[in-house]
Specification:
356 residues, alpha/beta, D-Maltodextrin-Binding Protein, domain 2, 2 domains, six-stranded mixed beta sheet
């Protein structure tokens, strides 16, 4: 009878995950997970890939050039529905941040007397202009777009007739503002602070304190990846949960700014990152507002991709006309926000992390 042989060969190495991000402050959990070795601690090899815009990042996820990415939560709805892209079944098992937005207007507006909403409206309506007030967002399918629309509604300005909103890659925001191509933008950091530092803009208002029901950035991947590489996906979420917790510790905000400043990440001086992390991003004018609680990475169960969060974001997107009602049926929130994937990853972490 032949004797069974036992293979002593090592198991085949797991393929490295290709993880995309944009060089924004709210990409912090991904960058912290790499720099602090959290991916490796969870048995992962990860290649971080810096992209130039959300549309590019989305396409690479759809066509498999990226396995997952840091992305605006609203991009899940547009990608699933095929709005401005090929339709693709995408999911998230983790919300990575909420909040952190600010509105920045051109310094030229300040120089002619605009100080706030009250003085902006008559300028838009009474002054001869070659074009409507033109404001930039990094994606139409983003929380920053919703924040901007809410601000315009509060100001009483009419979209299309008085204001034009265009998409500008985040890395081009400051350049376009300085060139006069846009009159302002709504975005996260570090773009507001950089516009102020370079004398191109000023911030009249910060967004209201973040609501954990209005998810901002998420870990986006395809449903196919989440199923076929479930083990790696679970480990990826677990590593990022730990990174989010680290990012939200108050004593870590200044070290976080130093980490993000590295050339391979944001390549921005840490002095321009610290104010946004501490809620002091609105500057450039006297009595600048502050928001010490401007961005959350983990607090108040921010990371949970719950049905309630998905439903709240979907309702806001439909109400604002960002996505059609046909792309937002009652089943869509459950399909896009997968709390089960989050809970599975959370259960693999030490008890201390689970209860924070």
């Amino acid at each position: 009878m032949p004797t069974a042989t036992i293979s002593l060969a090592s198991p085949a190495p797991r393929a490295a995950l290709r993880l995309g991000f944009l060089p924004c402050t709210d990409a912090a959990p991904l960058l912290v997970a790499e720099q602090r070795g959290l991916f490796a601690q969870h048995g992962l090899q990860v290649q971080l890939r810096r992209e130039i815009g959300w549309a590019t990042l989305r396409e690479k996820v759809i066509y498999g050039e990226l396995d997952a990415a840091h992305a605006p939560a609203a991009l899940l709805w547009s990608t699933r529905a095929g709005l401005d892209c090929a339709p693709c079944d995408v999911v998230t098992g983790l919300v990575t941040s909420v909040g952190g937005h600010a509105l920045t207007l051109a310094r030229a507006l300040w120089d002619i007397g605009v100080r706030d909403t009250a003085s902006l409206v008559p300028y838009v309506r009474n002054r001869r202009r070659p074009r409507p007030l033109t404001l930039g967002v990094s994606s139409l399918f983003s929380t920053s777009h919703l924040v901007l629309l809410g601000w315009l509604e509060h100001a009483g300005l009419h979209l299309a007739r008085e204001v034009r909103i265009i998409v500008v890659p985040p890395t081009q925001m400051v350049r376009q503002l300085a060139a006069g191509t846009i009159d302002g933008f709504c975005a996260g950091e570090p773009w507001n602070r950089l516009a102020i530092r370079e004398g191109a803009g000023w911030s009249p208002v910060l967004a209201s304190p973040p609501s954990t029901l209005l998810a901002d950035k998420v870990l986006m991947t395809t449903a196919r990846f989440a199923k076929t590489r479930a083990r790696d996906h679970c480990a990826l979420i677990a590593a990022l949960i730990e990174a989010c917790l680290w990012c939200d510790e108050p004593q870590n905000r200044e070290p976080l700014a130093e980490l993000l400043a590295e050339a391979r990440y944001l390549n921005v001086p840490s002095k321009d990152l610290t104010p946004g992390l501490l809620g002091r991003s609105a500057a450039g004018q006297p009595d600048a507002p502050t928001a010490p609680d401007a961005i959350h990475f983990a607090r108040d169960e921010a990371n949970v991709p719950s049905a309630a969060k998905a439903q709240a974001l979907q309702a806001a997107l439909v109400a604002a006309g960002v996505i059609p009602a046909a792309a937002a049926d009652t089943d869509t929130p459950r399909r896009l926000f997968r709390e089960d994937l989050y809970r599975e990853a959370l259960s693999s972490l030490p008890t201390a992390a689970q209860t924070r």
